[in-house]
């Protein structure tokens, strides 16, 4: 969780790809991966383990195919991560074809880095509020819409209550920073006079019993700074 999101940059222009990787990876904003071909990109996205891609920055023209066709291929497979296409063309028909293939956004080269970063952030915000979003939390893949954690190595599914799901989702979005008890109470329960910090602590206890590998001992969901956080070192 040091880098909150992972991004895969697919472009055969080595100089541009390396520049993008450097700029997007600064300050730990993204965990950056790179591919110069569609074949290499498929290898990253389809790997059975070792991290998930949260957003794809995809060039149109690649040595082994058209990025728009790859975008359509991913959508047909049910992969819903945000895809931002890059192209050297300003032609409207070119942009329409990319969006029709399932791209979320389109940027024309040369682009301004600040604008690109803003577009990526906007797409991630939209995706994180969608039903398709998934998160990595420790050994688990977290599916908020299903109220479920999946341990892929063990093949174990952990079912969560609505409140447990909301707690994990809010703590994940805090990026490893402690969230005070009162803040978490308000975000999960809203304004309910009957709800106290004891209610929250009870839910945290039950959640730990479900998700902590070491018999409920806090290693994933930590108590810190007058509140709770997810372990930023996972």
UniProtKB/TrEMBL annotation:
InterPro entries: CheY-like_superfamily, OmpR/PhoB-type_DNA-bd, Sig_transdc_resp-reg_C-effctor, Sig_transdc_resp-reg_receiver, WalR-like, WH-like_DNA-bd_sf. Keywords: DNA-binding, Phosphoprotein, Two-component regulatory system. PROSITE patterns: OMPR_PHOB, RESPONSE_REGULATORY. It comes from the Bacteria. One of its GO terms (biological process) is regulation of DNA-templated transcription. Pfam families: Response_reg (PF00072), Trans_reg_C (PF00486). Residues 132-232 bind DNA. Residues 132-232 form the OmpR/PhoB-type domain. GO terms for cellular component: cytosol; protein-DNA complex. GO terms for molecular function: phosphorelay response regulator activity; transcription cis-regulatory region binding. Residues 6-124 form the Response regulatory domain. The modification 4-aspartylphosphate is found at residue 59. SUPFAM superfamilies: C-terminal effector domain of the bipartite response regulators, CheY-like. This is Transcriptional regulator. It comes from Bombella intestini. The lineage of its organism: Bacteria, Pseudomonadati, Pseudomonadota, Alphaproteobacteria, Acetobacterales.
